[in-house]
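Customer ticket, subject: "Can you confirm the structure for Nudix hydrolase domain-containing protein?"

Message body: Hello, I'm evaluating your service for our small team and ran a test protein. I'd like someone to confirm that this is what the system normally returns, since I don't have a reference to compare against.
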Amino acid sequence: MTIWIDPPAWPAHGRLWSHLISDTAIEELHAFAERAGLPRRGFEGDHYDIPQERYSQAVALGAHETSPSNIVRMLQDSGLRLRKRKGEKGIARVLGVGFPDNSRADIDLVRSALPTPDTATFAATVYVRERSGHWLAVWSPRRQEWSAPGGWRESGESPEQTAIRECLEESGIALPAGVLRQVGYERFYPLADTTWPIGDGRFLAVYRADITLDRPTLNGPDGEPSRWMSSADFLAAVADSWWFPMAETVVTSA
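Agent reply: Thanks for trying us out. I re-ran your input and got the following:
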């Protein structure tokens, strides 16, 4: 396992930047960044952006110098590369996620205000916060976990309409269309041994809705409880889920 860094050559915010990666594991990369005193906000899902004044320190701590082209190649070879569009921020890349139907996928979690490709978007979810700062959590018997409301698109729906319908069905909360704003997406890469159950769908759109009521009454399906949780309680309830980095990003953002 090795940490790699390319020379500071990428201009932004009045300085030059390097990319710091691991060729094996994101956990190793985070551990190195912590030793180097690098802030977590510099993490871009598969690498850290390092300002030019921190380059020598990273090398002194053990980061191996290499070229930008090698950085990209090593990320691709390791399976850790997270693709994103301009203006987006990578949150995490999660490998080998298994689902109740026995399908498996590698998944990119991306923070973004850009819409997902419509024909490739198979599902949507919405994180709902009420006026006093509590978050809506619904229980999924199929997945046996708490989550934000969400589910698969139905014929003729837009992703936003899916999020609104799922929220109503799972909690009784009716969201007006104008309250939703896109905050990210999950992009799925089915693994070779998996028969993907939803055709060409690859994207799950992630929305946020801030409502002006104080913990309105919830009325979800029988046997599927829903509740309002504080930010800390919500994050604790979903801490073991593969999509936790997305939840953490949404809940801790302004």
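A couple of notes from the result: The first strand starts at residue 3 and ends at 5. The first helix runs from residue 26 to 35. Feel free to reply with more questions.
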